[in-house]
Amino acid sequence: MSVLKIDKNNFDALVRNSEKKVLLDFYADWCGPCRMVSPIVEEIAAEHPEYTVGKINVDEEPELAASFQVMSIPALFVLENGKVVEQSVGAKPKAQILAMLG
């Protein structure tokens, strides 16, 4: 499965109502650490179809970023049944991101 581009129009359908655990990556194109995390997030999406994996561009979706109180990026959130169960800020290795999904 590939990474989904999440915006305010598809958020409820793809994230809030997902029956799977969801990994959200809040990022911006100009953010260096975000570019380090992006290929890891894409690998996780490809290797773990049991999760819904989405990316949210904070420049394009400021309302979604504000609703998650994103102050620094990259910000990773894990949601289960529409609720945040894990979150972290900054570049993380794949093992730590997978542990969040644990």
Task: Please characterize this protein's 3D structure.
The protein is of the alpha/beta class. It has one domain: Glutaredoxin, CATH 3.40.30. The chain has four helices and five strands, in the order βαβαβαββα. Strands 1-3-2-4-5 form a five-stranded mixed sheet. A hairpin with a 2-residue loop joins strand 4 and strand 5.
In terms of topology, how is this protein built?
Blueprint: E1 4-5, H1 11-16, E2 21-27, H2 32-47, E3 51-57, H3 62-67, E4 75-80, E5 83-89, H4 94-101
Parallel strand pairs: 1-3, 2-3
Antiparallel strand pairs: 2-4, 4-5
In short:
The protein is an alpha/beta fold. The chain has a single domain, classed as 3-Layer(aba) Sandwich (Glutaredoxin). The chain has helices at residues 11-16, 32-47, 62-67, 94-101; strands spanning 4-5, 21-27, 51-57, 75-80, 83-89.
Query: What is the element string, with H for helices and E for strands?
Result: EHEHEHEEH
Largest sheet: 5 strands, mixed
Distance between the termini: 19 Å
CATH topology: Glutaredoxin
CATH architecture: 3-Layer(aba) Sandwich
Portion in beta strands? 25-35%
Radius of gyration: 12 Å
CATH superfamily: Glutaredoxin
- The percent range for helix content is 25-40%
**What is the name of the CATH class?**
Alpha Beta
Shape by Cα distribution: globular
In total, how many domains does the architecture comprise? Answer: 1
Given the structure, what is the number of helices? 4
| Strand arrangement across the biggest beta sheet | 1-3-2-4-5
The total count of strands amounts to: 5
Low-confidence stretches: none
Q: Which structural category do the helix and sheet elements fall into? A: alpha/beta
